[in-house]
Specification:
Elements (H helix, E strand, L loop, with lengths): L6 E2 L2 E2 L19 E3 L3 H25 L4 H10 L2 H32 L16 H14 L13 H25 L1 H4 L5 H32 L9 H4 L1 E3 H7 L1 H9 L7 E2 L4 H31 L1
Antiparallel strand pairs: 1-2, 3-4, 3-5
The chain binds protoporphyrin IX containing FE (HEM).
The site of protoporphyrin IX containing FE has 24 residues, from helix 1, helix 3, helix 5 and helix 7.
C-alpha cells in the first residue's frame, strides 16, 4: 500500500489518478512498485534464517560420521549445542507457521477476503498456471512467446506449497521425535522409528530443493541474476514489474490501480544490506548442499 503523501523526486503522488494512476506522472526510470509488505518481508527473513539454522544443524546430526559435521559441531560447542539450536529454530519456525495459518483464517473467515483463495492475487493454483507452464516450455523450445505472468508465477506457487506441506511433514515428525514418550502412548513402535527416517529424508529433499531450485529461480536465472532483492526491499522497478509480472501490471493499469502500488526507490543502504545477506545465505546454502549431497551419495 502506498502512502498517499509519498513524494518521489519532489512530486506529490496521487494514488488513484486517471488510467495508469500516479504512474503516468513519473518518468519510467524513477518508478518503483510495492510487491511485498514489511510483514511479508520479515516473515521471509525469519523463515530463511530458521530454515538455514535447522538445515545446518539437522544435516550435521544426520551426517555426524563425516569429518565436516564433526568439525562444525565442535566449533559450535558440541552436538548438545547443535541439538539446542535445532530445537530453538524449530520452535520459532513453528510459531511463524501457526501465525501464517491464523492470519489466513482470519482474513478469509472474518474479513471475507475471497481473493486470497481464488483469483489473480491468490497462491492457489489455477488454469492460467497450467497454461503458463505449457507456454513457458513452448518458449524454451522457441515455439512461442514468453507467457505473461500474474502476481505469482506458477513456480512461486510451487515453492510456497512445497514449503507448506513440507513444514507439516517435517514439523510433525520432528515433534514426535522430540516428545517420543508422549507420542509413544498413541503410536505403534514402528511409527516412532519411521518418523526419524521421514524427517531425515524430507530434510534432505527440502534442503536440496531450496538450495538448488529455489535459489536458481530466485537469484541465478538470467532475469534475476545475480540477485533479486525484491523480497528484502519489498519493491520492484517498473521494468522488473513489466518483465516479470506483465499480466498483473496490465490488469492493475486497466483497473486504474497501478498508482496504489507506486513507491520510492529503495535506500542504497537497504539494497547493500539485502545483497550482503542474500549472497551470504546463497553461499551457505550451496556449501551445505555440496557437503550433504556428497555425504548422502557415499552412504
Ligand atoms: C518444526 C520443525 C522441526 C522440529 C520440531 C525438528 C526436530 C528435530 C528433532 C527433535 C530431531 C532429533 C535430534 C536427535 O535427537 O537426534 C531432529 C533431527 C533432524 N532434523 Fe529436525 N526438526 C524440525 C525441522 C527440520 C528442518 C526444517 C530440517 C532441515 C531442512 C531438519 C533436519 C533434521 C535432520 C536432518 C535431522 C537428523 C535426522 C536423523 O538423525 O536421522 N529438521 N529434528
Amino acid at each position: 500500500m502506498t502512502d498517499p503523501s509519498i513524494r518521489i523526486e519532489g512530486t506529490q503522488l496521487e494514488p488513484q489518478a486517471s488510467s495508469g494512476g500516479a504512474a503516468e506522472a513519473h518518468p519510467e526510470a524513477e518508478r518503483y512498485y510495492v510487491r511485498f509488505t514489511p510483514i511479508q518481508r520479515w516473515m521471509h527473513v525469519i523463515m530463511f534464517s530458521t530454515f538455514l539454522g535447522l538445515a545446518m544443524t539437522g544435516l550435521t546430526i544426520l551426517f555426524s560420521s563425516n569429518a565436516w559435521a564433526q568439525h562444525f559441531a565442535l566449533a559450535i560447542g558440541g552436538f548438545g549445542a547443535i541439538l539446542f539450536i535445532h530445537k530453538f529454530c524449530a520452535v520459532i519456525l513453528t510459531l511463524e507457521f501457526l501465525y501464517h495459518i491464523a492470519n489466513i483464517a482470519f482474513r478469509v473467515v472474518v474479513k471475507k477476503e475471497k481473493g486470497l483463495l481464488w483469483g489473480p492475487d491468490s497462491m492457489v493454483p489455477n488454469l492460467k498456471d497450467l497454461k503458463d507452464i505449457v507456454g513457458n516450455f513452448r518458449w524454451f523450445l522457441g515455439l512461442g512467446s514468453k507467457p505473461r505472468l500474474e502476481r505469482y508465477a506458477y513456480w512461486e506457487k510451487f515453492d510456497y506449497w512445497a514449503v507448506f506441506w513440507g513444514m507439516i511433514i517435517i514439523g510433525f515428525s520432528g515433534y514426535v521425535m522430540w516428545f517420543g514418550p508422549f507420542f509413544g502412548r498413541f503410536l505403534p513402535g514402528w511409527a516412532l522409528n519411521a518418523v526419524q527416517i521421514v524427517h531425515g529424508e524430507e530434510a534432505m529433499l527440502a534442503a536440496t530443493f531450496i538450495f538448488s531450485i529455489h535459489f536458481i529461480n530466485g537469484h541465478l536465472r538470467p532475469d534475476n541474476f545475480p540477485m533479486d532483492t525484491t523480497i528484502f526491499t519489498g519493491v520492484q522497478s517498473e521494468e522488473e514489474f513489466q518483465q516479470r509480472h506483465a499480466e498483473e501490471y496490465q490488469r492493475l493499469r486497466a483497473e486504474g490501480r497501478l498508482g496504489e502500488k507506486l513507491t520510492c526507490k529503495p535506500e542504497r543502504s537497504l539494497l547493500k544490506v539485502s545483497k550482503v545477506i542474500g549472497f551470504t545465505v546463497v553461499a551457505a546454502g550451496l556449501v551445505l548442499l555440496i557437503l550433504s549431497v556428497s555425504a548422502y551419495i557415499r552412504e
